[in-house]
Structures are given as structure tokens and as C-alpha cells.
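Possible race condition, two jobs.
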Amino acid sequence: MKLQDSRHSVRNYSDKKISIDQIGQVCDIGYNLKRHAVPSGGGLYPIKIFLIVLREQEGIKTGYYEYDSKK
């Protein structure tokens, strides 16, 4: 069974904090130019990932962030 076939929504959230490295891994899997090479007019790659942190996590405070796959 493929991973995407076993996906499901979760409504019972844990109070366990996640690290900035774990957040980075999720964002990297979501969109990384090396892994998800797609054609883009003018090489602009207009897809961006934004993260809203509602509760302080390990190494990241509450706020609104834009993911930079190059860092």
C-alpha cells in the first residue's frame, strides 16, 4: 500500500511539541525543488509553503513563517 493511500485526517491533537527539524522535514517533503522538479515559466517556481505556528514548539515561536527550501 502506498503512503498516500493510507493518509487520513486527525482531529485528536497531541500536546507534544515538535522540533524545528521535524517541521523542516515535513515542509521539505511537501515541496523541494530537487525532489519535485516541475516546469515553471521563467524558472520562477511560484509555489510557496507558509507555516502558522499557533503554539510555541521546540526551537520555533508562535508566528507566521515562509518555508525556504534552499536553507
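Job #2 (started ~2 s after job #1):
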Amino acid sequence: MRSVLHRTTTALACAAFSLGALVVAPATAIGQETEAITCNSQPGSDATKFYEGKSAGLVYDTKFRAGAPIPGLGAYVPQGIAVLENWDGSGKPIFLISEYANGGKSARIYGLDTAGREIGYVQIAGSHVGGIAVARGWVFVSGRADGKMHTIRKYKASDLVAALKRNDGKPLYQNGKARSVDGSSFLTSYDGMLFAGTFDEKKKSSMQSYYVAADGKLTEIESYEVPRKTQGVMITRDHFIFSTSYGRKNRSNIYVVDAFAKKIEPSAKCFRAPSMSEGMTTFGGYAVLLYESGSDAYAKPKPRNVIKHLHVADIATLPYFQAG
């Protein structure tokens, strides 16, 4: 599988991602599945952390740093994040962030440039839009779920770009019919393939990989186990890195697992993160993590941590920490 899946990096590593712009500027429930994996909970210092609320832990606070403001906060709730390369023909990439409002009755895709400036947004059909990913000229977004039935919508990247440039609030309609899948709570892409998985609060769940045809058609290939409460994932040549969270008062976890391992154990280890983490993506040599806690939807009661900026870490550092 690894011979097919080589890491997709591009001009992203060279784009000036003004890490200056991006850089200036949940959790365990009771009575649920017993986890053999204990996350590193070494205490951090509230005096040195870079976000509101109690420190999540020393590992997180030393690996991550604050990035650009998250767009759309207020009525909208951030969920997924992806990178669209060469979005306007100049070679520059942008971030795409999926967000919902009114319980999923309304949804948007926001564009954020690598200097941290909001480009605009595109209105799309309502759903929880838990994930977003870009592969082979298509933008994939989590669609509506009905019981055990999940869906993924697709949009031509060129249509999305045109709509972002217009920034007129008019809706962008999906291309064709939404694809029914086993799970679409979170999405990511790697080497031109799509990965989509299922959130489960109580037990480990699964993530499927899909071959993406030139017309955006998806063909399922493999299935992988994921930690419980998975909200997002990013993939590198060597690792699956999962963002897991549930509950505004609980800490999140970041899991590091061997890439393309069918089971998360025995390779999985994890460390604590601020509450309410969501999607993740790679940007050149950086991991970019999204949070939903800054939305007005979660203002009362106040979350453990209120985060209104993207958080950024050097990918190379993420696997190196002592297991719990």
C-alpha cells in the first residue's frame, strides 16, 4: 500500500505560509469502553500556554503554537480543514474550512489564505459538514447522515474557486448525487486518495480509503481502525495522526499511529490537547489543527478551552513524546 501512497507535498512547503501570519497572532468519558492506551498527561503551565483556559498538557504546549484566526466564528461552527493548492493559478495554496450553523440547516466553506486573511465563503447545502478534503481536482465534503447511512458530496475545485472569488453569498450546488458511504464524520486526503471515517463516542471505529477517479467517482479500497471519538485525521508517509474529542469540558487527545496500520494498537500513543479539537491537515512540513470551541454555539456553558485560532506544529516533532 505504501508504494501506492507516497506523500503529497507540493508548493505548500515553499509557499511562504507566513508561518509569521499563521504563527503570530476532548477527552475521556465515564463508563465507556476501557482503553488500553493511556495518553501522556504530563502537566503544562498555565503561565506559558498560548490559549484560553487550563493547560492541556506539557507535550501539546511545547509542540503547538497559535496560528491565524479561524474564520466564521459566531453563528458558524468549524469542523473540517483542507488545503487547496494553486487556487488562483499563482501557485499559492489556501485553506478550506467547512462550518455549519443552526444545527446543520446552513453550511459554508470558508477560504483562508496562508497569510491568515479570509478570502470569503461559499454557501452550500446544509449538513454537519464534519470533514472536507481535496483530491484530484475535487473538493469532498461530509453530507447528510441518516441513521447508519452517511454521505459525501463532491464539488469541482474550479467551481468552488469561482464561487470564492465572487464571494456573493449565492449557493454552490454539489456535482451529481451524494455518495453513500460507511462513514463521513471526518475526511482527509493523501496521494490523491480520499479517506473518510466514523465518529463513535463509546468505542473504536473505522475509516475507509477510496480511489478517486478523474470524474470524482469513489471506489472503496481499504478499512482502518480509528480511536474512539475521532473528529479529524491527517496522514503522513509514516503516520496516521488523529484528533479525538467529545464534550466542551473534556480535554482532547492527539493520537499517533503507524500509517496504514489496520489496527491502532500496538503502535498507537497519544497526548492531551485542549478541548473540542476538530479536523487536521498538513501544510508542507506543518500540522494545522482546527477547533470548534470559539463558536457562539458553545459560549454557554463555557468550554474548558476557548480557541479562536488555528494551532500549528512541526509534523516532524509530533511522534516524539513519552507514552502515557
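The CA atoms of residues 255 and 270 lie 4 Å apart.
Logs attached separately.
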